[in-house]
Amino acid sequence: MRLSLSFILLLFSVSAVLSQVADISKRIAISGTVHDADNGGRMAASTVSLQPANRHVETDKDGFFSFGDLEPGDYKLSVQFIGYEELTLPVSAEEDTVIHLYMKPIHLTLSEIMVSGKKRRNREQISALAVREIGRDYLLRNNSTNFVQTLASISGISSMDIGAGFSKPVIRGLGFNRIAVVDKGVVQQNQQWGADHGLEIDQYDVDNVRVHKGPMSLFYGSDAIGGVIEIMPTQIPDHDQFWGDITLIGKSNNDLLGTSVSASRKKGNMFYRGRATIQSYADYRIPTDTIDYLTWKMPVYGRRMKNSAGREYNLSFSSNYSDDNFSSWLHLSNVNAKNGFFPGAHGIPALNRLEHDGSYRNIEMPYSTSNHLKVISNNEWNINNKGRINLDLGYQNNHREEMSQFHTHYSNQLPPAVDPDLEIQFILNTYTAGLRYLKDEGERWSKIIGVSAEYQHNRVGGYSFLLPEFDRLSGGVFWLNSIKWSDNLTLTGGLRYDIGKLNIYRFYDSVLSEYLLMQGYDEQEADLYSQRSSDISRTFNDLSYSAGISYDFNKRHSLKLNVGSSFRYPGANELSSNGVHHGAFRHEMGNDELESEKGLQLDADYHFRGRKLSVTLNPFVTWFNNYIYLNPTGEWSVLPHAGQIYRYSQSAAFMAGGEMIIRYDFTNNWSATSDFEYLFSVNMEDNYPLPFTPPAAVTTDLTYSDLGTGLITQYSFSLENRMVMDQNRVSRNEEITPGTSLWNLSANAHWDIGGRRIVTQFRADNIFNRAYLNHLSFYRKLNAPEPGRNIQLIIKMMF
Asked: What is the pTM for the complete model shown?
């Protein structure tokens, strides 16, 4: 049995829990008032943090804050407010202590955390689900290749990677259309059913993210059955000012070079913000010379995955008007990407296509292009200080193309006269509307009543066929409640009813029919395979609910319990597909009798917060009545290179697992964190695990942080070990994936150079250049290892 630093720390931390719980030392309080250093005015809505107690509060309207139920000892107190220098100072308290803090206004530097006194949309107040909120500082310190890989540093979140360029998120083993990414109140729709379709989000344009692990259909309807990644709007400062940042990005593994520039302006009731991001990267490096796939031994020239280069161009603009009773946001964004595919990943690998072509940065066929345009309008009206009305409107256009030199398995198929190398094209237009009435916020009984609607219009093109054209109209009405029973006890719950109408349009492949008849198949069998999709019209009705309890035993112990039902409409590909999915090397056949996928989940969220030790436990259990999956039929397809026919079916399924996070602060400077995540899943029909089940993993990091003097104002160093266990429990058509142990190193520093603030972030991932496989990777079926050692440097300059 392998032992590592992760397990040693885990055992030590569990022992420390017992000693912390037994400690009944004297309790004290640290309180105070935050002032403006120039005029002495009291500053409301400042963020005050106390470490290592890991406590955070906002000052009230008089600038007052208080931390109670503390043990005597040494602490670090920090205060942040936009437009002011961050204030951090040590506090040695042996008895109740009152402090007056004075913050200095600045115009050339900007705090990383932007805080406003205005109310923020707060979904966790009416949900007892586990919620993890992260800000810009976390996103910068854990910056990875893309937004999803950055979020994968959170326990329970995995990244399904398509090379080093783009990824899709997985929450507790559920991905694709089973989780929703909500950008400023609007669910992002970007053909997320596809395993090789990434998430089009500019990670440098994200300030604050909430990750909800568990069923969220109550809030967002279908596609939120497994959880939600919620991107929040930026916070607006109370004072007029102009600021921005220039970020330079460099990464060694794929020679990535990039820059992101933003500028913001607050004047009176108006706020404006714009950002532009450009990134370009070459073929990524892997620590091997060959890849063994079936009977092939594929060479990896220069230890680089050929044609995995890419580029990204992103633009965004936001504006806001606010007064005492009304606020209106307008968000515009466009994410454009071009990414190459490894030649062996589409269809049967051809060894001659793997030879080095003289450039690591060019992008040849096959490759994909994607452009995601979003227009979002968020509006809010305050009504007599007793309620609010929120109206969210959204439009999205997702245009995806896959280019591959014309090829055919049918001797009678000719290349198209226009765009002969356009293999697949998807154009998806989505219109969204949501209306909510929030009543009695902050009172003992608060309520939210709302309606939502979404319309999708999908059209396809190209010389290959994968997804049929369809239109989908869905809507829902919901009622949410939060009852503050006492200072320690809060009850939450709600109901939602949804109805959805899906129309799928017929496509008959006459070229395929002619080919099969030429091969000697009868007309009936030729028609069966040539009917690539049928005219289907389905209506779905679903009821979802949630009930939860939040209880604070004392300042140290708190517990949330939530039981919730959720649902997901079957997708057009699950109902009506019929043909070879070359990326998966199989014939996939839809099932027009599928019903909505329904699940019931029980979640717990326990927190222990001691003076030095904090523990978080997030266990869960999920039962699906009719989980949708691809079931091998035992029949072989007559289509060339198709293999066995897999048909979409439904079965009961069971999932259980959770996360445990332990943090121990040895001193004010030294701390260690250990995250453990585990997931068990089983299909009750065939007793196989569900596909894409992440392996168990333990991540441990040791961190030193301190305040500097002079040039460096604060800095930190971190050593991380991530141990991934073997994944021996695999679904059909999956292979066992061996585990690995990876070591990473990072350093972060804040500089004061000529009155300007500069942040540098250095990371070295996989520092021993170890070859390993990612069970969720798109290239796992090729036995292609993940990228090797990567050294990255990010320089962020504020102005």
From this structure: 0.85
